[in-house]
Amino acid sequence: GKRITMYHDNVSAILDYYASVARRVNGLRGKEEVFGEIAAFVDGGVPCDLSGMPPRRRLPTPEEAQAYVQDTMQPFLVKALTALAKAKPDQPLRFLATWMLDNNPNKPAAGPRPAPEEGKFGKDDTMGEKASHKTAMQD
Q: Is this model's pTM higher than 0.90 or not?
């Protein structure tokens, strides 16, 4: 009884200590990645963790996130909404989505996108594909 309890207490204390000073590294990844993680841990850039999971990237601060939105997203959205206002299409959401996909600066399109089928969604059709899907299901 007492010896087993003392053994478990000692093991628990040792594991708690190692959890605060060690990191398990998954050696099944590429050599460069493993050595990079070890070097980052030794330098203090990667926290202690015994799960063996690769380190997560640091989350941006609120200031960094706001700067990203203002510098990257806002100009793109202003261009998209300007194009929407100039075009005044019957289906503004579809136009905006298509414009954003066609003009995405991060992933330029490989080729021209096929034009949407004319007349598939009428001017009064506010539900788009969901409405036509429900109608087909009811038939």
A: no
